[in-house]
Design brief:
mainly alpha, 10 helices, about 75% helix, globular
């Protein structure tokens, strides 16, 4: 869990600095910071998505994942949860910052692969690199969207820390899961598509409700394994 604790620290420091600084910046500057994160998020998303080795797997995972997520109303449930949390605080709305930061910090392949590597081998180098990126992003997001970004700490601890603990408990069965495996590659590609949707939202171009595509992260590695049995 060392990598997750470091990640929490960088997001806390970066988000707090961004929040305090953002209140003293003109709205146009905070908006520019949000757009900057949005552009970099798009670049990251396309880079990950284009790494797919089976376009059919990626397409099916995203389509079916989007359908399942819409039927499950994942985005609505997350927004409702964030509104309840928001009711505990005063000031500017927290929902947008909470959802955006939670998705951005937890969807990338570094989260899953880094957590698994930390759990299997105690190697937190990937999560250390992720922590630096997340700290910078948290500062920019908090300057643009406010203190809701800091609420993502709970999601990072529960999701990323939980993956590390699960990997440690299931170390034998996960030993064959590596960044080069087909399942990991397609998982990263599906995450990239969701990151693209998130980037479009940050740039205020189109709200595709990225959270509804989260089931694609489960479907992509499963489909990647199934396609191996096709003639």
């Amino acid at each position: 869990m060392v990598g997750t604790w470091i990640n929490l620290g960088t997001v806390l420091v970066g988000g707090t600095l961004g929040w305090l600084l953002g209140e003293r910046l003109p709205p146009r500057v905070r908006q520019g910071a949000g757009w900057g994160v949005g552009l970099v998020t798009l670049v990251l998303g396309f880079r990950l998505a284009l790494g797919t080795q089976h376009l059919l797997v990626l397409m099916l995972a995203v389509i079916l994942g989007g359908v399942l997520g819409s039927l499950m109303r994942i985005a609505n449930h997350l927004e409702r949860l964030s509104r309840r949390v928001e009711g505990l605080f005063s000031g500017r709305p927290l929902a947008e910052g909470f959802l955006t930061a939670s998705l951005l910090f937890c969807l990338g392949p570094l989260t899953i692969l880094g957590a698994i590597q930390d759990g299997l081998f105690g190697d937190w180098s990937l999560l250390g690199a992720k922590a630096i990126l997340d700290g910078v992003s948290a500062m920019a997001l908090a300057a643009a969207l406010g203190p809701g970004v800091l609420l993502s700490l709970v999601v990072i601890l529960g999701y990323q820390g939980g993956l590390t603990l699960v990997a440690r408990l299931l170390s034998t069965s996960l030993a064959g899961f590596s960044p080069e495996s087909a399942a990991a590659v397609e998982l990263s590609a599906a995450g990239g598509v969701i990151v693209i949707a998130l980037g479009l939202s940050l740039l205020e171009l189109r709200d595709l409700r990225p959270a509804n595509f989260l089931p694609a992260l489960l479907l992509a590695p499963l489909l990647a394994q199934l396609i191996r049995f096709l003639p």
